[in-house]
Amino acid sequence: MFKKLKQVFGGDDDSAAAEKKFVDVRFKEKYAEFKDKPHPEMHYLIVTLGASDSGLSAADLKRFLRDVQKVEKVSNEDCTKLIKEHETAVGHESSQKLSVEGLHSLLKSAPQSIFKPENTKPWQDMTQPLSHYYIASSHNTYLWGHQLKGEASSDAYVKALGIGTRLVELDCHDGSDGEPAIYHGKTLTSSVKFSEVIQALKEHSFKMSPYPVIMSFENHCSLPQQAKMAEILKQILGDQLCTSLEPLVKNNLLPSPQDLQHKFLVKGKKVRPELEEASDAEEGEDIEDDEEEDEEEEQGGAAAPTDKAEAKADKPKKLNKIAVALSRVTALQSVHFNDFEAAQQKPWQMSSIPEKRSLKFSDSEDAIKWVNYNKRFLCKVYPYGLRFGSSNMEPMVPWLCGAHIAALNYQTESDPMTVNQAWFGHNGNCGYVLKPEFMRDPKATYNLQDSETFKTNPVEFKIRLLSGINLPQDQLSDIIDPFVTIEIVGIPEDQDTQKTRTIQNTQNPIWDEQKSFNIACPDLAIVMLRVYDKDTVGKDFLGQYFIHAACLQSGYRYIQLEDQSRSPVPGAFLFVHVSVERQGAAAAAK
């Protein structure tokens, strides 16, 4: 039986392992193709758009692409080529018109994806100061898993870079052989050599994106091993190591990602400038370790009397001695966050705020002050210290207040990571996304709770959920009763969730339901589609697709469903019709 099926589906290996792989993968994929038939809506399109029901001519297809799919530039010649390509793909080599099957093939091609093709590459202005961008950032990048007992590896950095991160974290400690090592202190995690990680960063940082990589150091090393760190950085990275941003600052603003292409920036503590200029490399200076204190206080490790300020003043400061040699190669200086005025802060100085404090800022009158602070200075938000299982915070909270860096555990598959990928996919997944103008302009007043303060174009987003195709079966049952939820996450005014009715006992449901959403700030919104199987005790996850609202294409679209690790579910799609219309434009048209 297996050999007969191989003649149909292909394959050369006759082993038992190959047979099992065939049953698990190849058959499912091919069976999905057999079930993947054109939706009845396509027959309707052929009849209504074509001069006859035999198919669409080049002129008919041009009208469809222009008026329905909203393709701005398309010629008759383009359409003739598309007809030939997609009719050939469905076995109609001699056809001069686009059949129902050919239209089905066309709509499943990459240019007809729900995701705008122009957003698959960096398209935004990359010449603005660094403080005008969101930056894709990973937390404890060296770990594969658990914060207390996970494995540390340079491969974890390679994976994070491959996903798109531009900020990586290195927790540096003295190594037993005289060479610095990276691991999570006071835990049971394994370690990896500092030099091995720097070499991996050198080899992999710019394969996906040319824009700068920030290496955020948590430094626990002795002075000699800090000097060794500086030596390794200079030896491996050479001219790609940017050792100072101060000469590149213009009008009190940082240089741009464009200015810093293929450069590495170290973020860490620095000694006083006069000491850095005058001292020998072996010397150092005691610097307060305020980030560790903030984390302790957030976890409840610090005392909490009525007068917290007085208690903090009485508590002995934690000091780390910083080597001059390492300070000299540190371009972004870590400084304690004191207040939003930051009168003495320099453009190349950067603060870090714990997750719980960021939640307080965002949910109070401080939100406006924080937004204005983030127009001038880089700010990193790091996750709650008790997230031992490497769970993730919700990155939308700091992003909505203009914080540049929401550090996530890239090793953990979760909704926050999927939101992160959708967010940075907006600009070709290059690791940098330009903030909206009202979050960059020093004169603009942006209030998270008041959409009237946004200088943006609100849109009406309509999605007609036509059908599901080859939805995956639940692991415990061959029967599924699928429904879809559509959720908008963004500013408070835009938060909304709607769902379709449940269709019983089918992997190929037809809903034909339209849902409408008014999105006041599409620049700060993510659309989340999830497919569930309804059962007697709740619901089971079947697939999902997240997309930045600014990346949506209008028209008929197939949506490739993904699992919770963002991998495609073979053969599983939603077929939808999307309309994205500026509300001002709609009002003018009426």
List keywords for this structure.
ten-stranded mixed sheet, disordered C terminus, disordered N terminus, alpha/beta, 18 helices, 590 residues, four-stranded antiparallel sheet
In short:
This protein has helices spanning 2-9, 16-35, 40-49, 58-68, 76-89, 100-107, 154-163, 194-204, 223-237, 273-278, 290-299, 308-314, 324-327, 355-362, 366-376, 396-400, 415-425, 583-589, and strands at 133-135, 167-173, 181-182, 192-193, 213-219, 241-242, 264-268, 284-288, 319-323, 332-334, 349-354, 379-382, 405-406, 432-434, 459-469, 482-489, 496-499, 510-519, 526-535, 538-548, 555-562, 568-582. The chain is an alpha/beta fold.
Overall outline: elongated
Mean of all residue-level pLDDT scores: 86
Task: Report Rg.
Answer: 27 Å
* Low-confidence runs: 1-11, 20-34, 299-313, 586-590
**Structural class based on helices, strands and sheet pairing:** alpha/beta
Strand content: 15-25%
Number of helical segments with 4 or more residues: 18
Number of E strands: 22
How many strands, which pairing sense, and closed or not: the largest β-sheet? 10 strands, mixed
Measured distance between first and last alpha carbons: 63 Å
Percent range of helical residues: 25-40%
